[in-house]
Structure formats: C-alpha cells, structure tokens
Amino acid sequence: MSLKDDLALLIRQEETLQFSRFDEETAWQLGSYLYNQATANTWPLVIDVRRFDRPLFFAARPGITSDNHDWVKRKTNTVQRFLRSSYRIRYQLALENQDITQRYFLSPAEYASVGGGFPIIVRDTGVIGSVTVSGLPDRQDHQIIVDALCELLGHDPDPLALCADCLL
C-alpha cells in the first residue's frame, strides 16, 4: 500500500470506530480487553484509557519500562492536540516529508507521531478522550487498539486492518 492508501485507511478507521456512548464501564471493558489480549500473547504493554479530563483505566504488564510510560504520555498528548490517531499524524507528516517538530514546532519530549494513540470518538459529540498503548512496535500498537475497538463495537476487523508487512 502507498502512504496515501494507508492514510485513507487510518481515516476510515476513525470514521468507523465510534461509540454511541462512552462511560467508565466502557473504558473498563476496552482496557480489560486490551489487557487480556496482552496477557494471552505475553506482550509487555502499558494501557491507558482516558477522557481528556481524567484517567479511566490504566494498567502495565510485566516487561515494560519507564520509557513506555513516557511514550503513552506523548502519544496521548498527540491525540488530544490533533483529535486524530497518533499514527495518522505520522502518515500525514510523512506525506509532507516533515516531522512533528518541523511542521508544528512541538517538542518530541511531549508529542509523538507514532502508532499507539487512538481517539475515543462518540458519534454526534466528537473526540472525548483516547486509548493509548505502548510496548510493541508502533504499527502493532496501533493495530491492537483497532482490533479491540472492532471487537467492542461489533465491526469486522479485516477491512480495517493495516498490512502487517507494510511498514512506514
């Protein structure tokens, strides 16, 4: 797939994976699903589900480091600033041959345009928060969130899956 094709798929993911409502129970279901997937696959993973005004779910699996916590913060900041997935921002910047510092003058210590941060979107409301993971390669971080959202929202994950062998 080309950069433009992948970007179109990332946009379609955000347009498709929207909640009719999102509350603490939903956050718990999403976070628990991700945690259980990480456990079943023995992934070292940090999982953060939040409304932008407060955390709703947080967990860390064995094998993560303090760097993973920093990545979660930076990915979450990116989603909150742009109201888009952190991976989508990566692709938009790649098409412009720029990075987040060049284009937006943002510190890479505070913002990251890599996979693993996804907006929580409520239909007819907009982006209210984010789900963020860190611990795997960024494309995989992104895809496990998409897969979890597909499971919770009842969507077939195949049409929304990024090519596993295609890396930016």
CATH architecture: 2-Layer Sandwich
CA-CA gap between termini: 10 Å
- Overall average pLDDT: 95
Relative helix content: 40-55%
Instruction: Identify the overall geometry.
Output: globular
Quick one: how many beta strands?
4
Count every helix, treating DSSP H or I runs of 4 or more residues as helices: 6
Classify the secondary structure makeup into a structural class.
alpha+beta
CATH class: Alpha Beta
Query: What is the CATH H-level superfamily?
Result: Haem-degrading domain
In CATH terms, what is the fold-level topology?
Beta-Lactamase
* Percent of residues in beta strands: 15-25%
Strand arrangement, major sheet = 2-1-4-3
The stretches of 5 or more residues where confidence is low (pLDDT under 50) are none
Largest sheet: 4 strands, antiparallel
